[in-house]
Amino acid sequence: YNTLQIGDQVWMAENLKVTHYNDGTEIPTGYSNAEWADLDDTETGAYCVYDDDENNADTYGYLYNWYAVETGNLAPEGWHVPTDGEYTALSDYLGGTSVAGGKLKECTEGSCPESEYWYSPNTGATNESGFTGLPGGYRLRSGDYAQMGFIGFFWSSTEDNSNEAWSRELCYDHSDIYQDNYYK
């Protein structure tokens, strides 16, 4: 994975695309919508590709549920899924939540905020951090896919409560980076 330094932190500059935990165990995949919805009951880690179209993985990487994050083995050896506090340090370094999202979002070099991936208006997008955040969307608790082109969704490794964990979102029509708790 390509990396970059932002402040005192080193970040991957690509979306995660692993099919095995870093201990070699295969991450389950291929769940129907109903089966995906049931993963909450069994607290099973899993991944998928948006709309079950492997071409989407080439650009956006894979989508993981929080139970895959919770294992502590999702990221490659020597890496980890950021904590909520690490995301806060990132947004603080970039000038606060109201502008950090734009500094993290991908845009076409020389034509910002235009983008091949984000829907217009891609508000505030400069990618001045080099992070190149993409709008890969997410898979809902119901199993449906949503928001590709509109939202970049990033899990943290920090649990909020027994049903939810903290995440960060970049959005096409804001320069903010949103902190949100979302169903695991």
Q: What are the main properties of this structure?
A:
184 residues, alpha+beta, 3-stranded antiparallel beta sheet, two-stranded antiparallel sheet, 9 strands, globular
Q: How far apart, in Å, are the first and last alpha carbons?
A: 26 Å
Structural class of the helices, strands and pairings? alpha+beta
Mean pLDDT: 96
Name the beta content range: 15-25%
Helix content: 10-25%
Number of helices: 5
Q: Strand sequence of the main sheet, in spatial order?
A: 7-8-9
Residue stretches low in confidence (pLDDT < 50, at least 5 long) are: none
Kindly state the number of beta strands.
Answer: 9
Radius of gyration: 16 Å
- Name the overall outline: globular
List SSEs in N-to-C order. Answer: EEHEHEHHHEEEEE
The main sheet comes to: 3 strands, antiparallel
3D structure, described in words:
This protein is an alpha+beta fold and 184 residues long. It is 22% helix and 22% strand. It is built from five helices and nine strands. Strands 7-8-9 form a three-stranded antiparallel β-sheet. It has a two-stranded antiparallel sheet with strand order 1-2. The longest helix is centred in the N-terminal third of the chain and has 10 residues, at 33-42. The two termini are 26 Å apart. The model has no long low-confidence stretch (mean pLDDT 96).
Short synopsis of the structure:
By secondary structure, the protein is α+β, with helices and mostly antiparallel strands. It has helices at 33-42, 54-60, 66-70, 84-93, 97-104; strands at 3-6, 9-12, 47-48, 63-64, 138-139, 145-146, 151-159, 164-171, 177-183.
